[in-house]
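Predicting holo structure, S-adenosylmethionine bound.
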Amino acid sequence: MDAGAGTGHYLADVLQAVDGGIGVAFDVSKHAVRRAARAHPRLGAFVADVWRPLPIRSGVADVVMDVFAPRNSAEFRRVLRPGGAVVVVTPAPAHLSPLVEDLGLLSVDEDKERRLARGMEGFTEVERRSITFDMELDRDGITEVVRMGPSAWHTDPAELAGRIAGYIARDTATPSGAPTKPRKVKTQAAFHLSIFETVSQARIIP
Ligand SMILES: C[S@@+](CC[C@H](N)C(=O)[O-])C[C@H]1O[C@@H](n2cnc3c(N)ncnc32)[C@H](O)[C@@H]1O
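Done. C-alpha cells:
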C-alpha cells in the first residue's frame, strides 16, 4: 500500500521489481489518483484521507510505503500483516539546498526527525539510510520541484513563478543585455529512507 501515493510513480516501480503482488495507492487528490490508477497493470487506486479510517481490511498489507506524505501510524499498523513493514521517505534538512534558501521557500523543519519517530507510535525504526545526490535543474525542473513542495501551497503561484524567473535570469544577462543560454542550477536531493516494524516483531538490524 502506498499512502499519499501521488501519481503512483514509486509504487509502479516497486511492482515492476517484484513478481506478482498487488499494489494499492491512495491519495486525497482525485487528480493524482486518476494518474496512479494507470501507473501499473497490478495497481489499484482510490481517493482517501490518511487521517480517516482506510477502506482496507486489517492485516493484509505486506508493506506500507509513504514517500514525502503524511503518516497515520495507527491505520498503518492495522492494515499491516504480521511481519510487515512500513517504508518512510522524508526530506532531510539539506533537501533542495541552496534552491530553498535562494528562492525563500519553506525549508524542512530541523525537528522533523524527532517528530517522525514520535509520529510512528507502536513502531521501531529498524533501518535508516540517508541518500544524497546532485541535480542540475533548468527552469522547468525548478518549477516542478517547487510545485511538489510545501511552498506551492503557501505561496501565490504567480509570485512563485516570478521568483523562479528572476532567479533563472539572475546570471543569464550579458553586458549587452542579451540572454545567454538557459541557465541550469545545481541543487541536491537529500532524504532519509527508514524501515519501521511493529514494536512486538522488531529485530534490530546492526
Ligand atoms: C509531496 S507529495 C508525494 C507524492 C508521492 N508519494 C511521491 O513521492 O511522488 C504528497 C502527497 O500526499 C498527498 N496527501 C496530502 N495530505 C493527504 C491526506 N490527508 N491523505 C492522503 N493523501 C494526502 C498529496 O495529495 C500528495 O499527493
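Residues 157-169 form the longest helix (13 residues).
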